[in-house]
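step=encode ok
step=design start
structure_in=
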């Protein structure tokens, strides 16, 4: 019976699994490629020859770019950006979608501490309305307020005209005090997460009741990287982030943001690709536009009568991505699987185990009961008294590992430990992991994997098709960069700290701001398709993928999806949770 039911599930979920794994991605520097090179370029999904809104997003161009990152003691990672004539730096944040910079009209104490160039309030070109942006959770919230403006914005050598952003005149956000002049949100365009875009659309279309104008307006008024992805000018609709380590043991990855491709030297087959969690409107997701009636995910049941089996009617859900969020298989500490959280979600049914991948979060956040269990396990002091600091011996390596897509992705022991007191390299503290809010509508994740995880993992974020995600679903690729001798590296870092009067290494790097050559990319323009073009678009969806799919063990691609004999249980469960 179990094997038979697995076969049924295999047949039902096989099409979704096929679309969850991207194909080979090529690598070039910032330039326009030759005609011959472009002909040989392999796209993640079959090319489209038919029209329609979704087809516009399937175009592939020849542009990409990469830029180094600044780092303030592994707390704030910054990237250089040019808005208008202002060269400044902003905090890199995959957990939000809005772009904002402080204007010289901001006179708060936080703004007074900024050492980065402010945007001139006299140059603001109003784009309609103003915003009040909220960051953090209920325990650590900050705000940023100001008018919505527009100007040419350039990132990694790629320039987009008339980019909406917030020119902030009031904020208490601490990123402004730590090498940044604002926040660069790299999240999806959604009315819940893209408040700048929503404000512009509401101003243009008098607060429309449907989402058609919002979705179609992404190419003109959406977040910067979403517009670049939707323009069709990039090699791939994606970006990749690698974070450097500037505390405990300086080194690790070379900090960079790469737009439009994977970093040079990184092969697609080395990454584990996991589908992005999709949200129904009931759970806080985007209401589907009228021009995309086929954007549904359905659970189909077979007309079978079997003992002890209840046949349910088919259920269909409209689904769009909301955040860079993926399902987790499990969480481990020092090789032992941690028990699932018993903390009840707020106002929703159990959404399953998932994680937000968030560069704007300088630590790791998880369910309170699981976090307390971790702290009790690593810290005798905390185990004896939960009000005590979670201290432990600096030289004891702990491995906090997150399983995704059937593979293990550990946090480097050097990114789990922090110095507790100066001149003491003997007793450290586990303050890189704290509790966070329970899951709720619009925020189904129970974990937020911030910079300690990102320092240990190269992460690729693939937008796919933003208007018709079923044609090219969004996904995230993970590549662990933790060395096999990480425990020995921690021992060496402790020895070096003891030789340095008990102090671990720490440094900060300024984002490499300044003028640079730019390639201007024209935004694409979308219009709602006719009924005929919508039908043609649906008919153009391919039924199979090419040879870059990978099995659960991360082996080399098989010849074709139909030859795969072993499916990743993690991916199947991920897709099943996504439906509900």
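sequence_out=
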């Amino acid at each position: 019976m179990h094997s038979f039911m697995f076969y049924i599930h295999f047949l039902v979920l096989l099409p979704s699994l096929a679309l969850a794994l991207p194909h080979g991605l090529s690598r070039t520097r910032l330039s326009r490629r030759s005609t011959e090179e472009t002909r040989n370029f392999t796209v993640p999904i079959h090319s489209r020859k038919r029209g329609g809104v979704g087809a516009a997003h399937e175009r592939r161009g020849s542009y990409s770019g990469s830029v180094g990152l600044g780092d303030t003691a592994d707390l704030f990672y910054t990237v250089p950006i040019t808005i208008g004539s202002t060269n400044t730096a902003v905090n890199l944040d995959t957990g939000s979608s809005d772009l904002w910079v402080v204007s010289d009209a901001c006179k708060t104490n936080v703004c007074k501490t900024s050492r980065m160039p402010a945007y001139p309030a006299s140059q603001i070109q109003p784009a309609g309305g103003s915003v009040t942006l909220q960051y953090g959770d209920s325990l650590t919230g900050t705000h940023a307020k100001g008018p919505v403006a527009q100007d040419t914005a350039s990132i990694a050598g790629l320039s987009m005209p008339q980019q909406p952003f917030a020119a902030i005149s009031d904020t208490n956000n601490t990123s402004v005090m730590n090498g940044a002049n604002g926040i660069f949100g790299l999240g999806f365009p959604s009315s819940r997460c893209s408040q700048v875009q929503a404000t512009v659309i509401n101003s243009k279309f008098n607060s429309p009741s449907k989402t058609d104008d919002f979705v179609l307006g992404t190419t003109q008024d959406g977040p910067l990287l979403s517009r670049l992805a939707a323009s069709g000018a990039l090699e791939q609709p994606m970006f990749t982030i690698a974070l450097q380590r500037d505390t405990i043991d300086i080194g690790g990855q070379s900090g960079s943001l790469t737009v439009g491709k994977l970093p040079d030297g990184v092969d697609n087959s080395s990454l584990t690709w996991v589908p992005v969690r999709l949200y129904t409107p009931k759970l806080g997701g985007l209401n589907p536009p009228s021009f995309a009636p086929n954007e549904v995910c359905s659970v189909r049941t077979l007309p079978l009568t079997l003992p002890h089996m209840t046949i349910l009617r088919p259920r269909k859900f409209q689904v769009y991505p909301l955040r860079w969020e993926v399902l987790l298989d499990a969480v481990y500490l020092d090789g032992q699987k941690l028990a699932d959280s018993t903390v009840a979600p707020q106002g929703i049914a159990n959404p399953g185990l998932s994680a937000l991948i968030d560069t704007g979060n300088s630590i790791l956040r998880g369910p309170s009961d699981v976090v307390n269990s971790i702290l009790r396990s690593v810290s005798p002091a905390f185990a004896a008294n939960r009000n005590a600091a979670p201290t432990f011996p600096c030289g004891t390596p702990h491995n906090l590992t997150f399983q995704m897509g059937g593979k293990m992705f550990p946090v480097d022991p050097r990114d789990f430990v922090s110095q507790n007191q100066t001149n003491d390299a003997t007793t450290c503290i586990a303050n890189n992991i704290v509790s966070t809010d329970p899951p709720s509508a619009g925020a189904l994740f129970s974990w937020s994997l911030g910079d300690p995880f990102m320092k240990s993992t190269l992460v690729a974020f693939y937008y796919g098709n933003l208007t018709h995600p079923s044609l090219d679903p969004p996904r995230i690729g993970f590549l662990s960069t933790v060395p096999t001798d990480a425990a020995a590296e921690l021992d060496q870092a402790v020895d070096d700290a003891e030789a340095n009067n008990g102090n671990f290494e720490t440094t900060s790097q300024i984002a490499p701001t300044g003028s640079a050559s730019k390639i201007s990319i024209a935004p694409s323009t979308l219009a709602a398709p006719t009924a005929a073009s919508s039908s043609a678009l649906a008919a153009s969806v391919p039924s199979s993928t090419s040879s870059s799919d990978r099995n659960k063990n991360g082996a080399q691609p098989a010849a074709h999806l139909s030859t795969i004999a072993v499916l990743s249980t993690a991916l199947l469960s991920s897709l099943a949770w996504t439906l509900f």
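step=design ok
step=annotate ok -> The first helix runs from residue 2 to 19.
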